[in-house]
Amino acid sequence: MRARDMIAAGTPVIELTIGEHDIRTDPRILDEMHRRAKAGHTGYASVPGTKALRDAVAARVTARTGVPTTRDNVVVTPGGQAGLFAAHTAVLDPGDTGLFIDPYYTTYPGTVRGVGAKPRAIKARPRHGFQPQAADIAAQADGARSLLINSPNNPTGVVYTPETMQSIARTCADHDLWLVSDEVYDTQIWNGTHLSAWQLEETRNRTLVVNSMSKSFAMTGSRIGWILGPEHVIAHLIDLSTHTTYGVPGYIQDAALFALQAGEQLEADIAAPFRRRRAMAVELLAHTNAAKSAPCDGAMYLMLDIRATGLSGEGFANRLLDQERIAVMPGESFGEAAAGHVRVAMTVADEMFAEALGRIIHFAEALTPRGP
Ligand code: PMP
Fold this sequence. Notes:
The protein has 372 residues and is an alpha/beta fold. It has a 7-stranded mixed beta sheet with strand order 2-8-7-6-5-3-4, with helices on both faces. The model has no long low-confidence stretch (mean pLDDT 97). It has 13 helices and 13 strands. The protein is globular. It has helices spanning 2-8, 27-38, 51-65, 80-91, 108-114, 134-140, 162-174, 213-216, 231-243, 250-260, 264-285, 313-324, 350-367; strands at residues 14-15, 74-77, 97-102, 118-123, 144-150, 178-182, 207-212, 225-228, 292-293, 301-305, 326-327, 329-330, 341-345. 4'-deoxy-4'-aminopyridoxal-5'-phosphate binds next to helix 4. The site of 4'-deoxy-4'-aminopyridoxal-5'-phosphate has 13 residues, from helix 4. Residues 12-360 form the Aminotransferase class I/classII large domain. InterPro entries: Aminotransferase_I/II_large, AspAT/PAT-like, NHTrfase_class1_PyrdxlP-BS, PyrdxlP-dep_Trfase, PyrdxlP-dep_Trfase_major. Keywords: Aminotransferase, Pyridoxal phosphate, Transferase.
């Protein structure tokens, strides 16, 4: 916020707080949107999503997960956030408790509260590489009905290991929890394997996966995504759409269909800048102890541990802004577990990113007492 005021007042600030690509939606996708709107797909569109789009999503999920999936497992939503809200509406009643993992994407507690339920945070700790631990979930599971997870993770950039995913599934089965899995960054994997919650057979009948075109196709403003789940839950969610959003504009659905069918190169091109910058960051951070990154295996963020400087994440972010004119997010703004960290979004051009990260490292080093 303070950074935005400074920018508005004309002070040049390098903004590393924004979770959005530095490119716009591909013109080919926009051309299709325009073409389909001109062709008349501007009336009420199919509320669950067009058959063609739901089929394309199902085919994509089948190809990527190996799990046979049909359009009856898919409902189209106006973006991932609407999907998160709808998913929690489906699995929680007012007064229930919904679990989520801290550090968390900022909307999570409000999303649970929004359906009249009580959010309860479970810490994923830096010493575990921010991987949630089954024992911590189990310890908080009493009286809860759902667990919300996110991998690849915003804000940490961590990808849950297959072992973590399996232990989460086991815990959800043991404690009778619905699993809501936010996988909006699933095309941004830099290292290791991403196991979708949909692949966890034991819990598939109690799982809802939320996904979106926002991050994978740089379509943040188009507001389109989907929920994947058991047929009977999807049927309820379609009912919910009828009574809330009444669907997503037809020409946006057509543009999403076009994007999904455009081939993997388009997606790879959209992910490529983050892959490059993440490689640059690994290189730059290899030579310092003052700022250490959490394993940055996915998504468009680095979570830097700056505890060696003796500052809080907030103290560090404020001083960095004042002295270096670089804006990052304090870890504390994503929950208690990320205290003493700052989140760096890799969402500016390569040269500027490398310069800014270099300056952040020098700044952290200057604050860090030297060892003996
Ligand atoms: N989940 C996570 C983890 C996110 O970072 C975001 C967007 N920043 C969303 C969901 C929502 O994305 P959208 O509604 O644009 O699909």
